[in-house]
Amino acid sequence: MSFINYSSREINCKIVYYGPGLCGKTTNLQFVYKKTNPEQKGKLISLATETERTLFFDFLPLALGDIKGFKVRFHLYTVPGQVFYAASRKLILKGVDGVVFVADSQIERMEANIESLDDLRINLAEQGYELDKLPYTIQYNKRDLSNVAPVENMNSLLNPRNVPSFEGCAVTGVGVFETLKNVAKQVLIELKKHY
Amino acid sequence: MSSDLVMYEEEFQKIDEELQKLFQQASAKVVFLVDKNGQLIASAGETREIDTTSLASLTAGNIAATGGIARLLGEKEFTILFHEGEKDNIHISLIGQRVILVVIFDKRSSLGLVRLRVKKASESLVRIFNEITSKAEKDKSEGKLDDSPFAEISDEDIDNLFK
């Protein structure tokens, strides 16, 4: 649910990074944070455990610039990926405008990817959303590792609708901004349809 | 699917006035209004030293988590949260199922006073938000939005955001 404020001339949108545990959602946000000008970003907030696993969410507000005199802000959130944080994940999807699914490219994580994607669909449905109708981008992360599944295989497994997808290595930043840019663009195009 | 929140100058003024009033009457340090999804709507008081964007997002997370607990216990919602600190206290209340009113206060005020004033302000805010909702529905059914920023938005405009 975006928030359009004619008084302060702002458009606020919410993007959620979803995916299995340790797939690199937080790393994506950290890279965006690192590479964005100070005046364009707020604080990166991480509610994490002592071992740096996301407990509730990470949050990064980004002010991208202006469209027709309106300041465009994106609020980026990640969910906790670990299976037992299901209840928290559901909460963060509330009011989402666009979803990034970060898939772990390692062969042994394919099942976790599929499980997380199912979880995403179910949790969205509970909030009255349909993944197929939302702005949605997939990132195949960790392409730098040696034990990765071929992108074609991952596409047929995780991306039957052939939504935009990007190869990534979030640690070094490969594909991070491409992914964000793509989903942000979809969100704005979706808003354009309604207003 | 919950609808987008569209706010015009007129309603924003009303909300702002209401928050200013609450800020004064409750002798608060800061008062702010957040949408349930964590977007800051308006604020009043000494906001300069506070990272209101982060605070808004965390407050909404807090309310969401508490709401989750409520449902587990068979409650619809816990409408008030109160955190007491050494110097500052924070009073969080859910208004009309839609927005969150946050009041930060110190020893210049008291919980009793804040609760009383919040209750009064809530009633007015519910009314204003009902107006906003009905106005948005009307605009949508008529298919008009005054000077929509999206009317002539081009691919180029969007691309420019990322330069």
Structural class of the helix and strand makeup of chain A? alpha/beta
The proportion of strand residues of chain A reads 25-35%
CATH-defined topology of chain A: Rossmann fold
CATH architecture of chain B: 2-Layer Sandwich
Fill in the CATH topology of chain B: Beta-Lactamase
Oligomer: heterodimer
Q: What is the approximate shape of chain A? A: globular
Order of helices and strands of chain A: EEHEEEHEHEHEH
Distance between the termini of chain A: 13 Å
Poorly predicted residue ranges of chain B: none
Mean pLDDT of chain A: 94
What strand line-up does the widest sheet of chain B have? Answer: 3-2-6-5-4
CATH architecture of chain A: 3-Layer(aba) Sandwich
Largest sheet of chain B: 5 strands, antiparallel
Question: How many structural domains does the protein architecture of chain A include?
Answer: 1
β-strand number of chain A: 8
Rg of Cα set of chain A: 16 Å
Q: Given the C-alpha coordinates, what overall shape of chain B results? A: globular
Average pLDDT reading of chain B = 88
Describe the structure.
The complex is a heterodimer of chains A (195) and B (163). Chain A has 195 residues and is an alpha/beta fold. Chain A has a single domain, classed as 3-Layer(aba) Sandwich (Rossmann fold). Chain A has helices spanning 25-35, 86-92, 110-126, 151-158, 176-194; strands at 3-5, 10-18, 45-48, 54-67, 70-78, 98-104, 136-141, 165-167. In chain A, strands 1, 2, 3, 4, 5, 6, 7 and 8 form an eight-stranded mixed β-sheet that branches. Chain A is globular. Chain A starts with a strand and ends with a helix. Chain B has 163 residues and is α+β, with helices and mostly antiparallel strands. Chain B has a single domain (9-143), classed as 2-Layer Sandwich (Beta-Lactamase), CATH 3.30.450. In chain B, 47% of the residues lie in helices and 21% in strands. At the A-B interface, strand 1, strand 2, strand 4, strand 5 and helix 2 of A face strand 1, helix 1, helix 2 and helix 4 of B.
